Amino acid sequence: xxxxxxxxxxxxxxxxxxxxxxxxxxxxxxxxxxxxxxxxxxxxxxxxxxxxxxxxxxxxxxxxxxxxxxxxxxxxxxxxxxxxxxxxxxxxxxxxxxxxxxxxxxxxxxxxxxxxxxxxxxxxxxxxxxxxxxxxxxxxxxxxxxxxxxxxxxxxxxxxxxxxxxxxxxxxxxxxxxxxxxxxxxxxxxxxxxxxxxxxxxxxxxxxxxxxxxxxxxxxxxxxxxxxxxxxxxxxxxxxxxxxxxxxxxxxxxxxxxxxxxxxxxxxxxxxxxxxxxxxxxxxxxxxxxxxxxxxxxxxxxxxxxxxxxxxxxxxxxxxxxxxxxxxxxxxxxxxxxxxxxxxxxxxxxxxxxxxxxxxxxxxxxxxxxxxxxxxxxxxxxxxxxxxxxxxxxxxxxxxxxxxxxxxxxxxxxxxxxxxxx
Length: 422
Fold this sequence. Notes:
By secondary structure, the chain is mostly helical. It has 15 helices and no strands.
């Protein structure tokens, strides 16, 4: 299983590169193509939408081809896309290149998450936090690398490097054997297990077994099972949680410099440092998030960190001191660092069936929340004071905490009812 985690970390490093590529080179691209920031917004939206589509289509593809095949296609496809972008094609081809990279990156990200969650029955939060550390490292390294190369006009060399790294990843998957975990890469239909005979059928004899099976497969019976299934109610709740998380996390990453600048906590030269500080805190927090979650328990960990996010975002909205602002950014990075992976692992423990499908839906929910809030926050900053965006993020954090508290309360009631019936 160590090889599985290593593979996941290497691919998540690539995901970190992909997620920040547009933001890292947009200031160079716009003058080259004689474009404005509206065009930049369209570019980001196209890549974002393509990524969501890739996440959602991955379970359908997983039923028809092996996950290794998807990783090979994804890696080589991203390599081809980045090579095309590096050679600065026409604007429509540039859009197509970023859309292809986003789409294939969405497939890769959801494949890796599904494989790790299905393969690791214990310490899954620790393993996923390691993947998120690799993601954070990629998101931190690429902007710094491109910033250095821009000085000499060689920024596109970073894209050549990413393309070469994609080829390495494909070769790594091709020549690495994962032992018992190889079964995780097979098409989903080859791993399906026939439904068990309903309880009590054996004692009723052959006729009783047939009658019980027929009753279980009746359409009305299937509908009742779906409605009574915990996963039928859990999935919408977790989708909502990921939607809220995406809005706050991606909103902070995209607009921290603008918020620091507009509120007077930083000037134009120092405002971009806030994102670097935030990512450094995220990486540090992710190194320990899994262990903390396993020690405290997922439910308690999530309550503490969702609550902490509300408090810190509220203080950030009230604060106007630069020093205090950076302290709050560090604390926000540490608080948010494990929320994504721990919530994902907690969802997996509560919904052990259809892990690949549920993982893709939850990740897409996070992406949708981040995309919608990024668009909304941009318009708010054009028309309203920056504090409105800050308080909106604090309000979204409060909604996520309330959603989680209400859900946890219902879970306790359900557990108590089951114990009483027993």
